[in-house]
From TrEMBL:
InterPro entries: Casein_kin_II_reg-sub_N (IPR016149), Casein_kinase_II_beta-like (IPR035991), Casein_kinase_II_reg-sub (IPR000704)
GO CC, one annotated term: cytoplasm
Subunit composition and interactions: Tetramer of two alpha and two beta subunits.
Pfam families documented for this protein: CK_II_beta
Family membership: Belongs to the casein kinase 2 subunit beta family.
GO MF: protein kinase regulator activity
Top-rank taxon, per record: Eukaryota
Official protein name in the record: Casein kinase II subunit beta
């Protein structure tokens, strides 16, 4: 498979929502342990999995491969599920850190902050919310500036990785001036504290 022609490359570089995601390593996708529980969540799972592991096929050529028209949508759903687990791993956190350092995500809308945010989903379950932005300095959750985020299922990121990310990279918060260090992050939506989503084991995602 030519990586430049792969479905994953197409999704990350051509699809409008792809820029928010990181590239999941193929070896991680090929490990069935990492995909536990997903067959029940994605129709035509085996066909979709093989598709996203291979080259992108334009719609006009899909009939010869017996592919459904919505296979890209199903592929995005499956990739999002895999993505949510991968960002809990060291390799995934490292890739997220690079996107964070490259200013790929929104900045905090608080005029007294205006620092880099992290993507967050308020639920770990499919279909229960879109993608928001979390400011690790203010501890607030905001609507993303780009309306395309309303089309991203928040479960592709979830919130479980946030604390792990900040523990792995404490300098993210330590870059704040000493006299303005924020308190321990608490999820708040537009300034109002919210309860953390029910925790779920990212390996099993029941």
């Amino acid at each position: 498979m030519n990586e430049d022609k792969s479905w994953i490359t197409w999704f990350l570089t051509k699809h409008p929502i792809g820029k928010y995601f990181i590239r999941v390593e193929m070896e991680y996708i090929k490990d069935q342990f990492n995909l536990f529980g997903f067959p029940k969540k994605v129709p035509n799972y085996k066909k979709v999995l093989e598709y996203i592991k291979g080259d992108y096929i334009p719609p006009e050529n899909r009939i010869r491969y017996d592919l459904d028209e919505n296979i890209d949508d199903l592929g995005i759903r499956l990739y999002g599920l895999i993505h949510s687990r991968f960002i809990m791993e060291k390799a995934g956190l490292e890739k997220l850190k690079k996107k964070y350092e490259n200013n790929d995500y929104d900045r905090c809308p608080n005029v007294n902050c205006n620092r880099q945010c992290l993507p967050i989903g308020l639920s770990e379950s499919l279909g229960e919310g879109c993608l928001y932005m979390y400011c690790p300095f203010c501890g607030d959750v905001y609507h993303a500036e780009n309306q395309i985020c309303s089309q991203i299922d928040g479960s592709a990121f979830g919130s479980s990785y946030i604390m792990k990310f900040l523990k792995q990279y404490p300098e993210v918060q330590q870059s704040y001036e000493p006299d303005r260090l924020p308190p321990k992050p608490q999820l708040r939506l537009f300034g109002f504290k919210i309860e953390d989503p029910k925790p779920s084991d990212p390996k099993w995602n029941k």
